[in-house]
Structure formats: structure tokens, C-alpha cells
Amino acid sequence: MAQKPNSSGPTQRQQRVAELIRHAIAEVLQRGDIQDPVLNSHVITVPEVRMSPDLKIATAYIMPLGGLDEKPVIAALERNKKALRQEVARRVNLKFAPDLRFLRDETFDEADRIDALLRTDKVRRDLESQPQDTNDQDGGRES
Predict the structure, then answer these.
(1) DSSP string, 112-137
(2) For the residues 121-131, what does the mean pLDDT come to?
């Protein structure tokens, strides 16, 4: 019986495989198994990998330490995609080695945007105008 596509997010299998691939990519980059001057001169973080539903495409979100030289690092990863795929296949036992894609991790940018929103005058004014909670934690009982 065919399964219905689940639009609520990745399946447990997708998440498990993505995490295995994330660890494999991070290990390859950390150990310097790929001989590329750009990759060897940067510390690269792989905070997340997302798998396609058929497990044939792995999208790795990467961030060089400090966010420096993002474009050259992504270009170097793309240049060495075949070797990275071989190393991942060697470390992760799957029927098919997934095609690797690399994107810049934007979670830090999103966190900065939310932080900036929380520091705006309007939010500060709203927080100051809310009444303070004077209710005791013990429910008003005397000790």
C-alpha cells in the first residue's frame, strides 16, 4: 500500500539519515580528508542537513567560523562534491549515496533579526506597559 506524503515535516527516518550524514560531512571536513586549500584553511560548521523524502538528496547547511568567506567555502564544497559524496558513502551505510547540496546557514541571521525586533522601542514600550505579576509562587499561602 502506498503511503500518503506527509506535509507535517520530515519523517523520523529522514531525520536519522540527515543526522548521520551531518556527522559524516563534519568529520570529513574536520579531519581534512578533502585536499582543498579553501576547505583546509577554514573551520566549517554543519549545523543541519535536510534529506529529500526519497533520501536521494541531502542539503547541508554550512557556516564557516565567524561567517567569513562564505561564498569561497560554498564554491569549494561544490567543487569537491564528488569526493565528499564518496567519503559520506563510505561512512554511512545506505543503499544509495545521496547527492549533496550546500547552502549557507541562515539561522544566525534570523536570530539577529528577531533580536533586533525585540530591542525596538515599540516592543520595549509594550513590555514596560504590562502590569508586573505580583502573585506569589506558593499560591498566597503563609509559611
Answers:
(1) HHHHHHHTSHHHHHHHHHSPP----T
(2) 78
Residue in the block written with cell 506535509 = 7
Enter the pTM of the model: 0.73
**Cell numbers given for 109:** 541571521
Terminal Cα-to-Cα distance of the chain (whole angstroms)? 63
Across 90-114, average pLDDT: 88
Candidates 71, 80, 73; CA nearest to 100 is 80
Please compute the mean of the pLDDT values over residues 41-47 and round it to a whole number.
92
SS3 for 89?
Answer: helix
d(CA 78, CA 128): 49
* Residue 39 per-residue DSSP state: H
Maximum C-alpha span of the chain = 70
CA distances from 134 to 43, 56, 111, 123, 127 (A): 49, 56, 31, 22, 16
Query: Using one digit for the tens of pLDDT, what is the confidence trace for 64-84?
Result: 987 788 899 999 999 999 999
State whether residue 110 is helix, strand or coil: helix
Residue-level pLDDT at 7: 63
